[in-house]
Automatic annotation (TrEMBL):
Cofactor list: heme
Entry binding sites for heme: C360
One annotated GO biological process: sterol metabolic process
A single GO molecular function term of this UniProt record: iron ion binding
PANTHER family, A to Z: CYTOCHROME P450 26, LANOSTEROL 14-ALPHA DEMETHYLASE
Sorted UniProt keywords: Heme, Iron, Metal-binding, Monooxygenase, Oxidoreductase
UniProt-recorded name of the protein: Fatty-acid peroxygenase
Family: Belongs to the cytochrome P450 family.
Amino acid sequence: MTKEMPKERGIDHTFNLLTEGYNYIGKRMSEKDTDVFETRLLGKKMIVMTGRDAAELFYDETKFKRSGALPIRIQKTLFGVGGVQTKDGEKHRIRKAMFMSLMTEERLGLFRTIMEEEWKRKGREMERKGKAVLYDESEELILRGICRWTGVPLTDVESWGRAYDIGAMIDAAGGVGKRYRVGEDARVRTEEWVEDVILAIREGRLQTEEGSAAHVMAFHEESGERLDLHMAAIELLNVIRPAVAVARFVAFAALALHDFPEWKDKLNTQKELNNFANEVRRFYPFTPFLGAIVKKDFEWNGYAFNEGDAVLMDFHGVNRDPRLWDKPEEFNPDRFNGFVDDRFNFIPQGGGDPNHGHRCPGEPVTVTIIEESVRYLANSLQYEVPEQDLTINMVRMPTLPTSRFVMDRIRVVG
Ligand code: HEM
């Protein structure tokens, strides 16, 4: 006999999700004192889960699949239609291995050097401007860096426009109306740009380093055939786009340095910098949740999950779960000293093993960007933080500090 799953009453709760944002799931879990409840979103029954054990369950590939789980509207803006995120089983493993092959120690070392150089360049540029919006500057800076790393040519003339487009694709993920349409158009333009790059590589008009993402994706083969041009562009953008998304963490990191300045003096070692970057990824809201579909009937904690049921895993909640984190509402990078990562208890970019499941392959890239940004902001740049609206709107997904972190009287000091 299975138990009755706690249920949210009413016909549909999409409106509640849209008006409560990041707080929607946590609020109901506490009210119902549960790790799982049933609701209806976009007219469909949905099982919502939270907690470390639910995360482990979510990544059990014998129980869940991804194909059919990602709404097409998200694929048409954020991810691209039919990319690695939507694949299961052997097809996923082969495609995923292509992403993991980019993350060698040598390539990541090169990326760190590129980020250091790009920050020096950006610092001088911001000093000339005197006043700048850190979030916008970071998007452009990261795009320059990731294009160099992936082997995608980017001219000075196009860098701001391309960064804006990629930002719009990311922002459209949780948007409706104009916000969504702007992102959709931006994806079409951006895919065309990257398709041209892949074609030029294949035709030998553009030389790229072996091991770089552009080279790997241009020549990757599945069942003896190259990816079609469009899919190769989508997958190359699956490296470029999320890297640009790290600008949100850069803005949050600057906010942390501003709100908790006592940590600035504790950034002397690589370990301290790494702790700070991880605490930024844990503390500030980014990925709220993700969906999957039940593959075949099973029971979990006495509840029935039936084939075809849609589930939503609460990523945000796990990073703030008091059963896992002491005083989760406190910003404390030191909590990562001695922290034992069991792959499901710290999941800002998904859980499990990135080599086998869907966990983000880009965590080392993300952490490198945050670390190098914090290093530069804390040691090499002097700036004032003028009066502005630094609140984080928890209804907006994905969110960021409202004023996007304005800096004034910027001076390079190191
Ligand atoms: C997957 C978050 C940065 C590439 C994911 C997933 C999340 C995530 C939550 C889904 C995990 C799942 O489906 O179970 C983030 C966040 C980032 C970030 C918050 C920083 C802002 C990056 C970077 C890259 C990257 C820098 C590439 C260099 C990917 C790819 C996938 C993915 C290709 C799909 C993996 C798969 O389906 O197997 N990311 N990511 N991400 N991420 Fe990231």
